[in-house]
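Appendix B, record 7
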Amino acid sequence: EKNLERGEVCLKKFLAIKPKENSASFAAAHYLLGVIYKKKGEKIHAKTELETALKLDPGFEHAKKALQQMK
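Structure tokens (predicted):
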């Protein structure tokens, strides 16, 4: 649980730096944040983050699978 919280804080800090929005790392950060929210049971936040990852990188297979598993 503490690792999830720490991961969430770190990813939010990274996204606050405003990396280039078309960068793979930006999509990956949204994906990882979505995974964290999913594990915490925060499905609405998870879905939003996973959808954002896919908007930034439509070919992101891990994000596609994670989103499909939520339906």
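Remarks on this record: The mean pLDDT is 89. The longest helix spans residues 24-39.
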